[in-house]
Amino acid sequence: MIETERLILRPWTQADRPALVALVNTPAMTVHLGGVRPDAEIDAMLARRLRDQERHGHCYWAAELRGEGVLIGSCGIRMADDYPGTPVQGMPEIGWRVGEPYWGQGFAREAAEASIAWGWANLAADRIGAWTTAPNEPSWGLMRRLGMTRRADLDFHHSRYAAGDPTGAMVVYLLERPR
């Protein structure tokens, strides 16, 4: 568990599913991710979080308001071990999703900075990556504010999307371990 001034990042439980669906499966949240997803895909997302936590001891954790227990989204570092044939395979990947009611309040940055600090303290990696769809400029902005550098040479097409689907075009940013 990671605590920041306003947040707690913690492992997921099955009981988090209804709040997760309400936060991340809305038209505004999924505009750059191919739109609202079927329930089965949200179930698979939660299953990946639970699996990542069990296998690696970390994942995109549940993010809740400190002292309130209200889920606001997800943030953390996972091992990108499910991207075979891409330049990011096996890399620690930081990611975040904050529900619409909590946008513009700095929660994603606060959670991401805490996750990065955790990563440097707990992982042997020399770099942490982040990627998103090409049109998702708000995420690019946060990547830059976190000190990440655009790495077009590592861009790839996400295998969950058909080859011609522009939603699958991933842009990659990296953060190098401080020396």
Topology summary:
Blueprint: E1 2-3, E2 7-10, H1 17-24, H2 39-56, E3 60-65, E4 71-79, E5 92-98, H3 107-122, E6 127-133, H4 137-145, E7 149-150, E8 156-157, E9 169-176
Antiparallel strand pairs: 1-2, 2-3, 3-4, 4-5, 6-9, 7-9, 8-9
Walk me through this protein's architecture:
The chain has 179 residues and is α+β, with helices and mostly antiparallel strands. A hairpin with a 5-residue loop joins strand 3 and strand 4 (71-79). It has a single domain (2-176), classed as 3-Layer(aba) Sandwich (Aminopeptidase), CATH 3.40.630.30. Strands 1-2-3-4-5 form a five-stranded antiparallel β-sheet, with helices on both faces. The chain has helices at 17-24, 39-56, 107-122, 137-145, and strands spanning 2-3, 7-10, 60-65, 71-79, 92-98, 127-133, 149-150, 156-157, 169-176. The chain is 28% helix and 26% strand. It is globular and about 45 Å long.
Entry summary:
This protein is of the alpha+beta class and 179 residues long. 28% of the residues lie in helices and 26% in strands.
> End-to-end distance, in Å?
26 Å
Strand arrangement, major sheet: 1-2-3-4-5
> What characteristic shape results from the CA principal axes?
globular
CATH architecture: 3-Layer(aba) Sandwich
Total DSSP E strands: 9
Report the uncertain regions: none
Radius of gyration, rounded? 15 Å
Mean pLDDT: 91
